[in-house]
Amino acid sequence: MRTLLLALALLATPAAAATVSIDQGTLSGTAQNGIAVYKNIPYAAPPVGALRWRDPQPAPHWQGTRDAAAFGPACAQSVTEEGMKRANLPQSEDCLSLNLWTPGGAKRPVMVWIHGGGFTEGSAALPRFDGAQLATHGMVVVTFNYRLGRFGFFAHPSLTEGPNFGLEDQVAALAWVKANIAAFGGDPSNVTIFGESAGGDSVTLLMAIPSAKGLFAKAISESGSVLFGATTLENARKAAAAITLPADPRSATTAQVLAAQGDIAAPIVDGKFLPQDVPQAFAHGHIAHVPLIIGNNSGEGLMLSSADNTDWLVKGLDPSVRKLYGADLSELDVRRQLFNDRFFRGSTHYLAGYAGAPTYVYDFGFLADVFKRRGETAVRHGGEIAFVFGFGPIGAFAPAQDTAMVDEMQTYWTNFAKTGDPNGAGVPLWPRYEGAHPQTLVIGDETKAVADFRKPQLDAVSPARTPAP
Fold first, then answer.
1. What is the pLDDT of residue 8?
2. Most buried of 202, 225, 257, 266 (most Cβ within 10 A)?
3. Mean per-residue pLDDT for 24-48?
4. Mean pLDDT across the stretch 239-252?
5. What does the alpha-carbon distance between residue 345 and residue 251 come to, in Å, rounded to a whole number?
6. 3-state secondary structure of 282
7. In sequence order, what DSSP letters do the residues of 212-252 get, joined into one string?
8. Rounded to two decimals, what is the model's pTM?
9. Catalytic machinery residues
10. What is the distance between the alpha carbons of residues 324 and 14, in angstroms, rounded to a whole number?
C-alpha cells in the first residue's frame, strides 16, 4: 500500500515548494509527496570560454528568485550508453549543476550520488537517479554533473591547471554541499557519498584525494573497478599530444573537442591533486578512513559479449584456474566470471582489506522478476541501481518480492548514511568485513553473510593484498 500511495503521489502534478535562500540567491522548486525538489542549482561557475579547462571557479550569484523546477543540461559528451540515448538529454559545457530532494526538517543525513559512465558520459538527470523515494527515509539526496571525457580530464601542455577537472568538480560539489546543505535541512557533518561504476570509482578516488578530506563522513562504492588503474601524467600528456586541436585548445568548438576525444585517460595521477592511484593509496593508508560499503553485482562479466579478444584475461594464469569455474561452463561463461572476479570482486576485496575503518562488503545477485522471466541468471553491471533509488511510479505494479528488495536495499543504505552501520530492524545481519575469515553479504532471494566468499577464485586471479610500491 505504501508503494502504491507513493506512486500516485509521484504521478500527481508537482506543487510549488517553499523558497530557500542561500548565499547565491533565492531558489524556488517543486514539492511532491512531502518532498521538496530543487534542480539545476549551479555549484560552480560555467566552465566555458576562458574558464574551459580551468579548475572550478566560485558559483555565480543571481538576483530575484531562480526557478529550480527543471534539470539543467548534461555535460557535453558523445553518447553511446543506451540509457543516455533513451533519455535524449540536452547537453552543454555549461553543466556544473546539482539537484536535491529534501523532506525538510533539520540535521537530516545527506546522501550525495555520483553518476557513472566511464568518466566519458552520463548525467545526474537520468530518471533512474530520482532521489524522491530515498528522501522519504529521512534523507536529503543530492545528485550532480561533472565534466566528462576530454573536457574533464586533459593534460595538454598549454594548460596550467588540472588535469583532473572532472574530479575537481566533484570536490567543488561536495564543498557546496557542506556550505549550503543546512538551508535544505541537511547535516553538513553527516554526508555520505555514493556512486556506481565510474561513480563508484569516484567514491574511492575521493577517499584518496587530500582536498576532499572532511567533505564527507561515509562512503558507498557500487561496482567500481579501480584495479583497471588510473594513468600517469606522462601517459596522459602523450595522449593529449596525439589529438588534433588548435594550438590554443580553448578556441576549439565543443564539436571539435568531442571529435578529438582520442584515448581518454581518466583519472590521472598527477602527484598533487591525486597523489597516488587508489590501490596504492589504500595499501599505504593515505586515504580518508571513513565507514565504507563496497561491493559489486553477480554478473558484472556479462558486459563481455563474446570470448573473442579476451585472451588477455587468461594470459599468465595457471591452467588449474579453469577447474575453479566448473567443467560445465562454456568458455565465454568462464571468462565472464573470471572478468568479474579479477576486476570487480577483486577490486572490492582488495580495497576492503585496507579501508582501515568499519567496512561492509556485498555481492548483489537479486534478479528482478522481469529478468528472471527472460531467463537471466546474474545481475548485470548497474542492476542494483533500481533497488537503491526505487522504481518510481512503476513500483506500484512491481511484484511483491521486487518491492521487498527495494525496501531491503534502501534500509541498508539509509541506515548506513544515518549511523555508519547498515544493520537494523527488518533486514538480515550484515557483519563487518574483518578478521581471518571476512564475511560478504550475498544479496539475493535469500540474503545472508558468507565467510571467505569466492576465496579460491579471488586468491587465484585477483591481486594479492600486499602493499604496492
1. 47
2. 202
3. 96
4. 87
5. 43
6. helix
7. GTTS-SEEEEES--GGG--EEHHHHHHHHHTS---SSGGGS
8. 0.94
9. 197, 300, 381
10. 54
